[in-house]
Amino acid sequence: MGGAYGLRRSETGPCLLQLGGAAAMLLIRTTARSCWALQGVPRVAAGACTPWIPTHTHGTWSGSSHSGRSSWRRRATAVGALLGLGSALAYGGHCRQTAQAESSPQDTVLGPFPLYTREEVGRHRSPEQRVWVTHGREVFDITDFLDLHPGGRSKILLAAGGALEPFWALYAVHNQAHVRDLLREYKVGELHPEELTAPAAADDPYAGDPPRHPALHVNSLKPFNAEPPGELLGEHFLTPPELFFKRNHLPVPHVDPDAYCLKVEGPGGRTLSLSLQDLQRRFPKHEVTATLQCAGNRRSEMSRVRPVRGLDWGISAISTARWGGVWLRDVLADAGFAEEPESQRHVCFEGLDQDLTGTAYGASIPFYQAMSARADVLLAYEMNGAALPRDHGFPLRVVVPGTVGARNVKWLGRIWVSAEESPSHWQRNDYKGFSPGVDWDTVDYTTAPAIQELPVTSAITDPPPGATVASGEVTVKGYAWSGGGRGVVRVDVSLDGGHTWQVAEMQGEQQPPGQVWAWKLWQLTAPVPPGTTELDIVCKAVDASYNVQPDTVGPIWNLRGVLSHAWHHVRVTVAEE
Amino acid sequence: MGGAYGLRRSETGPCLLQLGGAAAMLLIRTTARSCWALQGVPRVAAGACTPWIPTHTHGTWSGSSHSGRSSWRRRATAVGALLGLGSALAYGGHCRQTAQAESSPQDTVLGPFPLYTREEVGRHRSPEQRVWVTHGREVFDITDFLDLHPGGRSKILLAAGGALEPFWALYAVHNQAHVRDLLREYKVGELHPEELTAPAAADDPYAGDPPRHPALHVNSLKPFNAEPPGELLGEHFLTPPELFFKRNHLPVPHVDPDAYCLKVEGPGGRTLSLSLQDLQRRFPKHEVTATLQCAGNRRSEMSRVRPVRGLDWGISAISTARWGGVWLRDVLADAGFAEEPESQRHVCFEGLDQDLTGTAYGASIPFYQAMSARADVLLAYEMNGAALPRDHGFPLRVVVPGTVGARNVKWLGRIWVSAEESPSHWQRNDYKGFSPGVDWDTVDYTTAPAIQELPVTSAITDPPPGATVASGEVTVKGYAWSGGGRGVVRVDVSLDGGHTWQVAEMQGEQQPPGQVWAWKLWQLTAPVPPGTTELDIVCKAVDASYNVQPDTVGPIWNLRGVLSHAWHHVRVTVAEE
């Protein structure tokens, strides 16, 4: 039994998770932390769930599958290779093995255990409160294992109070018998059977939002805005979609892909209507690896200078994916538009996500950019080789490489060309940068241009702030990116607060000059000067136009807390020798 | 007698200056400070020059001219209006009036005066040494006038030890009878008649270099590299060509425009040969206002952190002109090339300037940029409406808007397309940026990309460092610019070293988004906090991609001292109330 996950919209209630070719389905809850844990649990009988206890897996798909989904699998395998993510596939393999494991008696733990709710488990998130996790329906107290965890205490603590499965999905190494044996030693209870189903919240416009990965740090639940821990973000050149930062302005719309229709208003009042199938059949498919970043990424550093209005993003409102779809310019040409290098018009996008008044999310980009053969603007229906997840715009979104996330309109419904920028609030009265002296009494949104291309930035993803690093030698990791296709050409790292600098090693996809849409991950291993007890680790990047990051946050402070791209500092303690 | 200046090449010796339709010519010297003064002096008889004493002039060309140069004059008038430079035209008018003045007895000062050499005059450049200037062949001691100068002491001191004419050419207000009457009161001598001719330096490869404006601060005489004082630079949106920074790598070549031939190597070995007339007749003329900046601009700030190798540029290795010529893409298309947005080839340029081994200056730009309808790359034969001056590439140069000066190859001789960047030293082994930790023992030029687009920068042109400003209110002026067509969208100015910021007013030509090739001049008038005795004035600019300048120079220090674009500081004293 193959285990491919897909989302299917329910007309009447919460989202359904469908397990591969199996008919097993399960109603899931929509809170961020609890829902994911349920995804791996096939419903084999009404009201009772079989514990999901993984067995040994090699983490790859078998070529001998006889289901009808082999082409999907081949694609997934290719994408997995591209991702460097054996783990993502391993998660799939792991699910598949689960079904076989159900009849495997040696994996079943017997005996009377106390029953807990997820909420009760969730209260155990630190060594002081004891650290509990769940796996299947079993509950474990792993406090005494924290310092024994080969991946480090900080990584295992990401799962504290919640389910292990989403993390094991990312780290395939856990899918081994001895790991499960080890875990069994820490079992303290089981989840209450009622925990495995959840009622729908009928009146909540966000009730239909999709499940999310519990590793995400949630900045706002409704609308959902969340980012992964820096340590996880920095591990993948292509961010696994479940970890890709989520930046929603409104509830995630339910879109039936079969009924989906993109409206493109052409010149002279003619409107082109394109189904998803039209888009996929009539236009050639293209793929682009592009990093998206929210204008508010790293806002928390700015709000430490002076309060700002906005979601308190850390360093991870930035992620990278390989997007697949059709060129926007091909669609616009089909609608009757020709390239006009001197045009000062705009291409406006409207999403299918709406507020209670029916106002949709919207944004625009310059017409010349939309039509440029070098700007690579996509109407994307794939992310890392699979259909767009709902949180990322299923079934179709705009991907404007090198341009602030806010213009990459998700759940795309309508495109038109205008002499003016999009009338949307988010184009005209938000996502603009101001001088540090401008406050809410003096701000005039007409005086600043909309943020489109973003400035050069970088951040340290590992070690995390406050960590203790070994003496002798330290390894620092991070990301670096710049807007407008201006690839990062160098990352300087300092261990002494910016007094001396060393050049980091960079890795990333080779992209043509001027079209470097993806970030670089970087790494520096350097000796820790003997006798040092603390390090103020700093990074700064240089892009292809030799623009650099500003030294400090204060002078770029702005009332909305956008464009926070100063040097990134991480202060750590050096362990005594 | 009309007075249009033109340069005519001498086959055998130094440069000749030709005065309008008149046959009067004069051999001139080639040192930076002394040559300009001679330009206005017609040689009416061998070995003897008539003093050039201006009379009242209205500073405009007469429409009743009967010479064959009226179309040139119309163009010059139009350009003058464009420049906001009555002064430039006034200088011409002034020259014209000179001839009439020769017979005007009331302008002649009689009496026996001591004779001086220019060198002797040049020793009088400060109040301590007394401040002398020349006008025509007369010598004046203006020390006692310094504080009476309506334009301020600092401006008149620019002419100390040299000739007034080049400055009066820029400031037409001086061309009035009462100014000359006033000057006459300070007369202390006359120039020795031998000073008005100069021998040719036969063996000097730089002997044929053109005359330059004495206001320029000379960083290197051979090759000639010089910049205007910041105060003068900041006064003109279009920099008068005589003040436009000069950045020569080699002697200025003598090019006969009638014999000039541009070689364009097309695909398949076909070479296009284009005379200047071919270029002007076969391709449409286009004009672009673009700022050029040397990669080494503001290097002196970097060398104050740690020594660097390179010319010690102040803040003025940046200037703006309106360039006229033909699109490079039109010429390349004529040579057989088609647009290829995905091409990773390069268009290589070679100048006619050569070193003693015959190696020419060279550089390259990406092919896609050369062919882009939005990149506006020009082969320019005009600068501010007149033929290119010799120092700026006569008769033809490349103008690559938004790209470092070094790629704007002057005296263009040859163009070809290559899979590789230009093999030139200046493309491959210079004009690259490195980390502050890289020194001459560790530098590897293959590890850094060639500087092409430049980062955002700004500087304060007025007040100058060390000035005393009035209490009450201060006016700060400067320029701001960014590469890649990313126009400056805001300039922040601080009077307190960067603690608080105010937004400056900007002025400049309206250019389309993404094609903002010209700088912005900016100004801020702000109260000086009572009791303040010193100001640390700072400016920083933000460009259309919201890139900003780094706070400090140290962390962007590099061994070649390029890309010095940190905040600019000017410290001044506040006068007691």
Describe this structure in words.
- Two copies of one chain form a homodimer.
- Chain A is of the alpha+beta class and 577 residues long.
- Among the domains of chain A are: 192 residues, Roll (Flavocytochrome B2, Chain A, domain 1), CATH 3.10.120; 118 residues, Immunoglobulin-like.
- Helix content of chain A is 16%, strand content 27%.
- The first copy, chain A, is built from 13 helices and 30 strands.
- A five-stranded mixed β-sheet of chain A has the order 4-8-7-6-5. A five-stranded mixed β-sheet of chain A has the order 13-12-21-16-17. In chain A, strands 14, 15, 18, 19 and 20 form a five-stranded antiparallel β-sheet that branches.
- In chain A, β1 and β2 form a beta hairpin.
- In chain A, α2 packs across α3.
- The N terminus of chain A is likely disordered.
- Chains A and B meet through β25 and β26 of A and β25 and β26 of B.
- Chains A, B: One of its GO terms (biological process) is sulfur compound metabolic process.
- Chains A, B: This is Sulfite oxidase, mitochondrial.
- Chains A, B: Its cofactor is Mo-molybdopterin; heme b.
- Chains A, B: Pfam families: Cyt-b5, Mo-co_dimer, Oxidored_molyb.
- Chains A, B: Its EC number is 1.8.3.1.
